[in-house]
Amino acid sequence: MLNSWTDEVKAALAPKGRTLVITLGSILRADDGVGPYVCAMVKFSRPELRLLDAGTTPENIAQTAIDWKPDKIILVDAAHFGGAAGEVRVIPLEAINRQTVLSTHSFPLSVTFSIVKEDTGAELVVVGVQAGSLDYREGLSPEVQETASKLAEHFNKIDGHPL
Q1: From the CA atom positions of the chain, what is the Rg in Å?
Q2: What is the signed CA dihedral for 36, 42, 51, 54, rounded to 10 degrees?
Q3: Residue 63's domain is classified under what CATH number?
Q4: Of 54, 56, 59, nearest in space to 28 by CA
Q5: Handedness of CA 59, 64, 66, 70 (dihedral sign)
Q6: C-alpha span between 141 and 155 (Å, rounded)
Q7: Inter-residue contact 66 to 116 (CB < 8 Å)
């Protein structure tokens, strides 16, 4: 839903220096697969842009993120904030363990990424996509797939390689 891209969302998605995009989620839980879908569709070639898919274990990529020393980290994950399926919002880091970002992750996201933020000094933003379904099935709902495609298109344009 491109019309849900507020100025806050657009600013959150804008790169800043060395920018690391980290996607989160499980392809086995319907719309929780939004992060892996975006990761599969984005191809960065510029050295100051990097993409990591953390799946459901973001703690496993924390050291990689710290070692790369990004200026900005953009987390992309499914969320539940009461919006329309496919809606995009920026979620404060301190709010991500409450009911907003989905808890299919094995370790609290706020703990993992507070450490990464502290160790890198990077600006960290969480971009949540409202899930429509978390059923145990593969494939995104049409609304979430549309948003995921728009996110991938946005990141590919930043790199200079539109889809």
Answers
A1: 14
A2: 0
A3: 3.40.50.1450
A4: 56
A5: negative
A6: 21
A7: yes
Which structural domain, as residue segments, surrounds residue 121?
2-159
**Per-position pLDDT tens, the chain of length 163:** 456 689 999 999 999 999 999 999 999 999 999 999 999 999 999 999 999 999 988 888 999 999 999 999 999 999 988 999 999 999 987 776 654 444 455 556 777 788 888 899 999 999 999 999 989 999 999 999 999 999 999 999 998 765 4
DSSP assignment of 54-96: EET-GGGGHHHHHHH--SEEEEEEEE-SS--TT-EEEE-GGGT
The upper half-sphere exposure of residue 133, i.e. CA atoms within 13 Å in the direction of its Cβ, equals 14
Dihedral pair phi/psi, residue 86, rounded to 5°:
90, -10
**Domain count across the chain:** 1
